[in-house]
């Protein structure tokens, strides 16, 4: 790194430094004792001095000096921890400064120039660090203007960041700009006169990965359902991919995963997301995953420092993480030392005197009389101030913490009993004393003690040896949740925790002990409230109670069953979002064996909400994500097995129970508890590596397996022959394991050996690597669920409609996108319900009136110019049968099917219902227009046909149609459609006129509808008059038709009502009893062949769908030109 120039006297430094390179003005030096294996006495002395004083962090082994020829004074301008780092600085000086210095006349100018340049470099580095957190406002504002102009999104589409890169189109790279916004991934290029625009919604991304192609070794590949696109030549590809990964994850969770959305406040308002927020979110999630902390914990500070580790008698370099309720430390060397310090355990935080040996030290004292010394903390004052403020808040919000409820589950008071007895207060709260439900005060293992088999002295002695080892470890590393967690404790855990300590150590490793101490009386009150209440969760719990470790005596009587019922019911009441899921009963049964009932409850909370988040819910998304990660690990670590088993989904389905039950339903219990030991210490990483070790142990047989069933049998037989020789418990049969054929001998596998192999061969995956893989595979899993939803909806809809399956699939995509676009920019209006995957498939996506109108304009064949908006609103009201202002895809598709493929009577039926309530409302705009059009005059001659022959045929057809409709009406039990009033009929006619606009047969259609309309008005008026005389309009209709057919020469109907008005004048309209029926309208329309042809003609939906895919986004934007309509969605065509 570059240093602010400081003068040094070279003569005094000669014995400590060795010159490596020199030029006219610069000297590169190496500190003695570093990098030379010769081992001279001076080098050894300097090296020993550095080691004893622990000064490596403050004295870099390499430096560059600025020398003034002829002067003993030099200036240090750069230092480096490695030779590569210092050589980069040296090369920069040679390339950029050495040739320039010769132009100066005197030495003072040279020194001044070089010092000024170094200071400028330091300032530039500082600015670049700031720029990483906050974009240059001017450049960002310029990019934002270009983004808005090029893609014309609404203002709500917030730009997060942008990058210069290349998009590969085939073998040709297109240089341009990549814009990352809250909902979209956009690329713009203008190269050699050709413009390229790409727009990909994040919810359409199926896969996001870093890979390589023929031309580039490091590219970012975006995969959608239709295309793959490669991007390369980023200035900082690591940062770009990290931001893209975060944006895809955040958007998919926000829009497609309702359960996570409700639990994560950071997803609630996407307009507040910034680049800095995304980076902080990624760091926050890593922090919570690494230390397995509650999801509500928010990371505040991350500081490099060193922690005094008494077991190694030195300071260990690492990083301090501080959050709302915790202070955590992780060493830079993986697995060397980790520490969790809950703030409720902290007694004091103090600053110590700053010395050269202990720079910027602080001491954190905890209740168990331990103290942690941290040194080399930058901004120590502000850090301590913030920690003290949060400590005060924790003590204020948890007044119980002022009373000593320690998280120490072991004490030193009874050394003969390994110094390990519960030190937690046994006093129960008033709520617990009055509880009608007696809670178990001991672990079920203690109550239902099982003696080991004969000759088990060896096992007992092994247990005693383990207990002594653990006792020694506690004495050196601590015995509370704040203990030093090192590689040594990992080895002890891998050997298997002693039976007497297992439950207590599970509490410490999971930090459930902190929740237990922070919530005295909580579980007892929860049991009191939840027991006796009946819901779906309690019914499922009751079904599974007797399936939980039925082979263990603890669950063969009511004591164990009642405790299991209370814990599961209390948790379902605490977390109704999860409620109860299968496999929770098996896990809770084992927890109750080794922990008290209340402790088992908090262990279950830790597993479900911290260690396996998103596992135990309706869709088990978390488990499926980890199955997908496991598949990738198999391909990476067991390539031969992956090559043989082309479809790894079989192994994934088999291994699902491994993850959900932590092998408890697969292995014999005495062996499986050792796996649970590792899980509580190392988290899900332990399950991944053990799964890989199991597959490797069976790889040869699996590669020779004939089919999936054979592979399943191989693994089942392997699990049945896993044993734990060191367990003091008798072997317990596993009723959960698969039945296997033991005709062939199978070697016995020792669980301790299997766990040791898993750590040695597959334990090198870090939490950070697993979290990155989870990001990638969560996209795949959520999109798989979306595909499943889509296929199930289509499977239900396809049998009932005539639209082609491929067209229906595209229609579903349009329907879903319309719903999602409302989530993008319009916010969640009160009527719009968020996508809820727990609902039935057909109800997961629904649209409101405005969204329906947009889709109607795009795909409906019934377009009526300006009248289309009104017709769309009426159609929505007709389909909204339950009046919740939302419609599902099936209703939308069925309506569109009638419009495109329905028979004439179905189309007229739909049109008729669109012009009566509830589709037509009293206050609807454009529905109060008076009858002014001369085409609707009742005194106009009504011509049926051009020839007498045609006339007679139409009259016979009309009469027969009326009779058939009457018979059909009599046979149907459903309620007849309401009759249409004159006001409603006028709107019906107006819609018909609008539909014929721009049709090739427009003139003949207008003439035909004028003829039919006049006839229907006459029928309605005569019916109105006859109803006033007491006769029904239905009988009158047939009389009119009879009179018409009686005259062979009747080619014209004349007005049977005498009137004082002229023929060209419209008849005054009064509502009165003027009504017309659907049957009368249909029969009248059938008299005109041009109308029959118009309505019987099937309409093509595919062109409408193609146009809609291009222009759907345009309806959401403002002021887009016709040219941009075609360009805006080139994603789908290029």
Automatic annotation (TrEMBL):
Pfam family name, one: GRAM
Name the UniProt key words of this record, in alphabetical order. GTPase activation, Repeat
Q: A GO BP term, please?
A: system process
Kindly indicate whether the keyword Cytoplasm belongs to this entry.
no
Q: What CDD domains does the annotation carry?
A: PH-GRAM1_TBC1D8, PH-GRAM2_TBC1D8
The record's SUPFAM superfamilies line, in alphabetical order, gives: EF-hand, Ypt/Rab-GAP domain of gyp1p
Molecular functions per Gene Ontology: GTPase activator activity
Name the SMART domains on file: GRAM, TBC
Repeat: is it a keyword of this entry?
Answer: yes
Give the superkingdom in one word.
Eukaryota
Report the residue ranges that make up the Rab-GAP TBC domain in this protein: 496-683
- What is the annotated role of this protein in its UniProt record? May act as a GTPase-activating protein for Rab family protein(s).
Any idea what this protein is called?
TBC1 domain family member 8
Species whose genome carries this gene: Chelonoidis abingdonii (Abingdon island giant tortoise)
